[in-house]
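tool_log.txt
---
The assistant was asked to compare two proteins side by side. It first ran the structure predictor on the initial sequence, then on the second. Raw inputs and outputs are pasted verbatim so the downstream comparison step can read them without reformatting.
(1)
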Amino acid sequence: MRRRSTGSATEEEGDDSIPESYEVVNLALPLERAEGRSRIDRSNSNQGPGKLEPAARQSNTQNTNTSREPEWRNSIDKRPSPARSRLLSNTSWKLAPESRHGQLDKTRSAEPPLINMPPEEAMAVDKMPDVRQHGRRSRFRSPWAISLLTLLVAALGLFSLGSIIHSFTNRQLDTKGCRMSYMRPSFAKLSDFDTEHTRFASKYSVYLYREGMVDEDTKVKGVPVLFIPGNAGSYKQVRPIAAEGANYFHDVLRHDSAAIEAGARNLDFFTVDFNEDITAFHGQTMLDQAEYLNEAVAYILSMYHDPRRSERDPDLPDPTSVIILGHSMGGIVARTMLIMPNYQANSINTIVTMSAPHARPPVSFDADIVRTYREINDYWRQAYSQKWANNNPLWHVTLISIAGGGLDTVVPSDYANLESLVPETHGFTVFTSSVPNVWTSMDHQAILWCDQFRKVVVRSLYEVIDVNRPAQTKPRADRMRIFKKWYLTGMESIAEKTLPHKEPTTLLTLEENSFAQGERLVLRNFGQSRRPRAHLLPIPPQGTPGGKRFTLLTDQKLDKPGESGKLEVLFCSVFPLHPGQSATLFSMNMDFSGDSLGSTRLACKNAASDVIALPASTRTTKMPFYLDEEEELLPFSYLQYDLEDIQDHQFVALVDKAVNPSSGWVVAEFSDNVQSHRVRSLSLRRLLAFGMKIKLPPNRPMVAEVKIPALHSSLLAYNLEMGNQVCGDETELFTPLLRQYISDPYESKYFVNVKQANINLHGVSPFMPPQLKWKAVQDGLSLQFWTDPTCNSSIKISLKIDIPGSLGKLYMRYRTVFAAFPLLVVALVLRKQFRIYDETGIFMSFSESLDLCLRQSLPLVLAALTCLSVSFAQASSDPPRPASSGFWGWRGNATETQVDFTKNDLLVGSQDPFFWFMVPLIGVVCVGVCVMVNFASLAIIHVSSIVYGWLSTKPGWLRYDDKRRSSSPAFAPSSPRRRLLTTAILLFLVSTLIPYQFAYLVACLVQIATCTRALRFAREARSNANYNFYNYAHSIFILMLWILPINLPILVVWVHNLAVHWLTPFSSHHNVLSIMPFIILVETLTSGKMVPRVTSRLRHLTSVLFFFLAMYAAVYGVTYAYMLHYLVNFAAAWLVALHSSTSSWTFAGISHIFDPETSENTRKRGKTP
């Protein structure tokens, strides 16, 4: 391997080599200067590389050929700079005996040429003064220089990034609709849960919540509920939900004898103080919390066995399980508890999480958290894949994931999806905008204190508990049915109707003329007959092509049996007359026959339990919700049944129970599914080009639904416009109401009084794992319209893709790409720099190398990655392959399919070839960001260099010689012994106390100092060698700078642990080999030593290494970002090996390092006397 022997940044003084890609090709000649004069030493052209000319030969040729040196060059060389008097660390300085002040002998060792030239070529170059002068200007090109191409690409990238951020903050925004909650909190610490029970007692603690003026007794008396805060969360975040739980039981449930008999008791809310631990970035912290929580659950359950701490009824069974509420990363910790060795079987069977990223980690900067996520998710998938319940340890566990939606800018709500983890029989994912009577998105913290949402959570928990069972909850199937009732709209395919399972409770006696004609019944007011009256609508027979369904919409609340409102809806069948049966079989008897002789008796079921709440839509409503200062809006009541659900009945009875005329309306009808359901099979490209137009005819049904299977991506947003609803002479009953929804996951959004709507969804998202059960066709986006059927006018609807609004959807899905994709650009730039340097001896600046990459390698790489991304997207849409049956079919089931849950982890994670442009777009944006970061670092280094120059300059009244002696040289390297000891101490601390991320931060700061001194040196001694070293040091700093964000989160976790006096070292971040190459490389650069050129075939290894780094950053960087540190660390090790190749290590040299006198004398001889 041929390498250039180099010792410091100044060894290559006078190197004029220019790469062939430059405008002027100027072959390098060794230059020498003494007392401001320079010349070309033609005698060196015959020497081989690495041979130094003796100092004695220099004295005969030092005053030759100075006329061709440019005037500005001579002026620079002649100025008496004290820093320039000590430029060369390998110069043989000789003191003249007669000199009083130690004048320097004008001798120095010659330097080998970077490129060997015959004498005639040197003479030819010597005859080209103009070309040489132009070459020098190219050599001293400013690092601030930027080509037009780089400027245009960077401007385009930064403009795209600015457009994305502007769209994210200003377009397609969900409206905030949470009402404020209030509480009177108090907390009782469980002091007895100490180090005898857990090793984390000094770091964590558990509290019992009590609501002031409601329940201030610290004894447990109900059902235990454990709240787990999220990343940097506080134990006090349980206050809103716990306060609502205490107040609801105190004000309502304790007076409800039926609820008490059914097993309802007070909820004892426990909460954990994690000292605001940062769990999103550190897997070990998450495991520590899970271990502590399992021990806390065991202690909490033991409290109910202790009569001194419990006031429970002794006849009730002792609790054996705890309900878990988890916020954010607390939900992931809750799932982690079930895979820990200290988990007590069946101690957890109900988990409700809020804004928890179940599908994948928020960031992949830590290897532990990526591995922990994989172990958790694999465990849950394997458990639910078991055929028999006895083999499934999670058979009795229900998991409900609630996402905040578009307002949550901390965790992407797409990550809350459970479709890849839990079957529908054991859990589901729902958005807060879908929850009845909530109907609004929420940010990451508001989901805990939003008043209308906390009421739903508390009521659902009170309905699933049953203190008569040891598990303290109802069976799993009942729990799932209750959660679906409280959290889903009721219009989903998995929503269960209660009407078919009921028994008739009402006997209805009517006149024979009470039957309505046709399939639609409309009432515009109530109480017109001033007495209760029933209106019958006959149920049509089955057999209609496409099927029929019954729909009812009213602005009144539907009465349950025994209530005295305005409207009650019954589904009835003819009841034969048998004396004495009416009093024994029915709890309610409604006789509207009056004095008529003929009457009809009907056995009826009340439909109020299946009512669906819809936001009121009138001319005065603007939002589905109302705020604190606004008047309360009563929702609409909606019923929807397929004909199969009501086939056992003959009539629908609408009972108007008002005795005085009053306002209100109701519309009930049977409609054909063919007329009310439409499927528009248009592609995204057609929608992008032409949009979509729909026209609702005048004789339309009340509810119309349009399904667009192609619209399933979360990266696109749409604008919907709806024409006016013209009703003519009659007053309209309600204004158009729109519901947009998807089924995977369950997300619905409502738009009242709709004229224009912003449509965006959380459907198919980048990097998300596939579903447990593969679907050939996505259901896509559905639009459901409620319009007044009495208005005989058509309504026009148009839907278009909102391109500016869609840009903002890229932010939450691709923000982590900036931790990896810029390394693609940086690695390619460094690869180009080293290739040019090994070929010509010029280490060009970062900007120049980036310009060359934009002209050559970067477009080709982005094109190849684009093709790869399209290939990945097509493979993602393919059905899963059958599982391997093993050797000769002896293992496994060939009919089973094996789902690859990691197939969307690569590159940009796209699952649709339509988004092929994401790779070029991200590449251009990252180029702009890299240019911006490069100039920002240049600014910091230049400012630091100026400050460093001020601090190192002495006053002018000092003697010149004293000034020269006292001025700090550009590089004043410490002794090898000091550097070795510093490195050894730092590595020892890494192996014992501090994580290697701290040492990496120190290395980055030292590299800034190295770049600062290198820039000052290059400014004062304008030569290729100095600028080579500065460009090299600067590029290494840029590379380290892009790795810094990957290491900072772990460092923050370590500092936080120190702040809470938790001094236990991390078990996973003390690998010395993970930081040693960085430390040695940075320490080597502090001595001003330039990396040697590699002229043998090994130079290709450097190119391959950086190219592999670039490809890994692009393909795997987002999912496995922590690996980028190790790859760059390996690159640093290679550079250290290159630096070490020019050093001769001997035992004598090593012993001199530890000899203070020898080391000090050697260091002094290397400096100016």
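(2)
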Amino acid sequence: SPHGPDPHQTASYSGGWSPLVSDRYQWLEVDLGERTKITAVATQGRYGSSDWLTSYLLMFSDTGHNWKQYRQEDSIGSFPGNSNADSVVQHKLQQPAIARFLRLIPLDWNPSGRIGLRLETYGCPYSKQLLFSKNHLDSAPDVVTLKFKTLRNSGTLLQAEGRDGLGFSLELERGKLLLTSASEPLRLASLGSLLDDQHWHHVAVERRSSHLNLTVDKHTERVQIPAEFSHWDVEQGNVTFSCAEPVSVAVTFTGPQSFLQLPGATASSSGGVSLGFQFRTWNKAGLLLTFDLPQQGGVVWLYLSEARLWLQIHKGGRALLELTAGAALNDGQWHSVEMNSKRGRLTVAVDKEEGGSAQASPLFPVAIESHLFFGGCPAEDTSHECRNPFNVFQGCMRLLTLDNQNMDLIMVQQKQLGNYSNLQIDMCGIIDRCSPSRCEHGGRCSQSWTVFHCNCSDSGYIGATCHSSVYEQSCEAYKHNGNTSGHFYIDVDGSGPIKPQLVYCNMTEENTWMVMQHNNTELTRLRPSPGVKQHLVHFDYSSREEQLSVAISQSEHCEQELSYHCRKSRLLNTPEGSPFSWWRGGPGSGRIQTYWGGAHPGSQQCSCGLQGDCVDPQHYCNCDADRMEWTEDSGLLTHKESLPVRSLVLGDVQRPGSEAAYRVGPLRCRGDKNFWNAAFFDKETSYLHFPTFHGELSADISFLFKTTASSGVFLENLGIKDFIRIELSSSTQVLFSFDVGNGPLEVLMESRDPLNDNRWHRVRAERNVKEASLRLDDLPVATQEAPTDGHFHLQLNSQLFIGGTASRQKGFRGCIRSLQLNGVTLDLEERAKITPGVQPGCPGHCSSYGSLCQNQGRCVERTNGFHCDCSLSAYTGVFCQTEVSVSFKPGSSVSYTFKEPYELSRNSSALPSSIYSDMTLRGENVSLSFRTNQSPALLLYVSSYYREHLALLINKNGEQDLEVRYKLDSSREAEVLRSKVRSLANGQLHTVTIRRLSDSVSVQVTKHSTIHIFSTFSLIVFVSPESGDLDPDLARLASLGFAGCLSVVQFNTISPLKAALLHPDTSPVVISGPLVQSNCGSAGSANPYAEENTHHLSGKRWTILKCLHFAGVIAVVIFVIVTGLAITARFLYRRKDTYRNQEVKGVKQDDSPDFPFNNQADSQNLSTENPKEYFI
């Protein structure tokens, strides 16, 4: 039947339906005679005319009232119509609608014609289902199904009792369905929302061995249940019933133009006012009701603000009265409001006073002058009868009463009462956008009438739906972001369901290790216990099962130390006999393993058995020799399928005299197979293809690329109409585009710098139901919002193309690495091995990551990644970023000596003088940092057998300035350079750099982060072949010793402190007294002795001599002493002479990684005798 404001105002039905008035208040209603399962609708324009619909809404009802709008994909409200009068457009309903009545409401039509329609529906009669369906076979699932509808938001639907008092109940609570245990108050699941809408809802509970499937309408949730629920005993039965259908007409305020105007005067209203209504909304604010007081007495506003109800009476620019009641009224539940004014008393109550009430006694009458306005005001109110300084109301209202009389909203709909605009009458169109929640990973969902919002705080994820992880997937990834060793959260599957885990990343070695701890990694001693034949140990890991499993699988190598220390305690026995001990390892509780650390799986051997060096050749483990002496079997477990160690059973610990100790180390994994998985596309027509990408509701794509091309498609996947694509659209732009049925949406990211620079660049794209985002390197994220009520399912069906497109146009030429879709890495290398035009792997990482190597560290390429070679740097660490510092106390020294592997004549005086002039060191670069409170103090002294020297000291005057002394001519006094920087003995960190080239010297001092280049001067350079003692003045200064800190000392490429502390066994160093490694060279350290560690080298002497090549023409033996010794010049000279007479032994270049001098220029011209001494 056709309907409109006046159902009789309808045009002729000839050729189809067409109302006389074409507006959005018309509809066509179809009575199917009985409840029908409607599966599709088809529309056509009016025959022989220019009248057709271009879009429309569908409503369904069982009673002809309380309509419910049908939505595709839970979001799309409108259906596209026709483009002409003759073609038929059919829409299959994604979820069949079950109803007796169907209503079609026109939204838009041919602008050159009128509303015109021919309509056909498809479906079949709906058959009722049994209330209970019981299968008595325990192996088959048990199912309980029912349908219900209600106006109440709380109550018990069903209780099912089984044997032993076990069972469950289905309850409504605030419009949600709860599944609870009947035996104890345990909530098992919550599903659905707004179920008190007086529409039929389908509920099913299906038992499957260890879990239940709870279904409400079309949403299903899997619920884990206790083991005792493995069987229930609910008898099968049929239930007949009838439902009363109370008529409650609701009205929906849909948007900014919505309002409802009703007459406010009744016969009994002259003495006051009595108003009532119910509302439900998600908005915190909005106007509910307004009216004018009689005789220009002011205006009354009843409104929501911060989800509380407020009543305000306003006149002449000021508030005469203000009341408030209720709280959290934006929860989507129905709330009742009552306003009464009688006998000078005004009362406002929410939810029958359960939600609160407020009262006042105004000095003026509160009554309605003429009209009531609900929800808002007319857009064009020339009479100024309605004023709204607040937000408009978006939500539903019902049960509107005035002076205890119901207001007939059906009459309003038929234009017989009041006035309205942009309302949906006889329905409540509220939608719960948070049920089911689109917020992932525990994000908290909140909503307004039109949108939802996800609060991702404390979840570890970001994005509009908390989809993308804020953490990296491995320690390897953290390292390549420039991080050093420490604790980090690792998200092994990115945006997948596995939660982040806290691990320790050890980046001190060339390989980066991920360390996962358990509850007992210490060496634990066992003693015999009476009556105990076996000792059982369980290990609980800080990471969860799924975290461990994925971390192990995506690592290149994993290992775990397993050791057994024993005295008369056997371990495994022979391979032919039953083992005394074993362990469990692998996924879950693990499988029994009968081999030990260092051996092969299944061998029932220890490491010594594999190597053939056990203490008893008849056994394959040292402990199986059963001796009274302590021995051990230790080694690494490296078979990933057997890791981690879950438990340990030790069987031979009960005999008298048996003693043992065990240790299971933490699980350590290195190498991220996903991070370096790469492919090189050498042609624009080459590509890789993979199965269809499934990212219907949310999709994230991340990868790294490098190229020299200016454009190309990284990735593409097509559907019938939908698609998703990421491409390099120009040398500075990356474009992310897709279509889910609303038309193409693009997100463009532009870089200031060229992207075709053959360096790695990172792309991260995400698409969800709220927005699309694109990230490029560390640039700010670019986003595009998705339509609020549009399509949001991405439906793809073609293959996924990587590096190209299906049409082979605009292919990508370059490298793609670490490609992940929704946290799953695509194995590009394996696919590239069998694909022409694509090569597995992609070398050349230093161009991108080389800048991470600091302080003259050198980037060295590896197949998968890089590492920093710190041999030419005074620093250490994974990026050559850690200073090497020593806190000195009186009595400490370090000597460092270098010598060529070949020698000239020991009688240096026999050499011609021309040789000496050619052997002059042309220049040096010296740098160090220090902090001390001592003045005067000698920081650095360099001298040769020919009485030339360099000294760096803090002088003894009150200004505590820095002094540099150079003496390169034995016949002249030393040339002295004094800085203008004062108070250097103040306990603060200062850095000094000295650079000399031939006769020119420059010195700079850093104080308080300010660099002072205080002078440059020229030297008279001449070397005399005569020997001499240490300068007496400097010898007296050295005898005072040194108390303070020296850090990152470097002479050209030589780092004596680093060699002494880190490579003492392979470096020509002599250490006297305590040498304490410290972080005193750190700018954040407060004093020279802060946070000393226990690295002490005391009184040791190494006589290994090393060949040193300077960039000059003199070869010398250098003798370096880190001062702190109270020494005399005579003693120093004797020490110097001793080293002259030592026998020189050649050492291979590779012995120490810190000193590769073969790169120095002019090395072939250098000779060996004439050692210099360096006193630091």
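---
observation on (2): The chain has six domains: 2-125, 143-233, 250-425, 512-673, 677-842, 884-899+920-1077. The CA atoms of residues 943 and 977 lie 17 Å apart.
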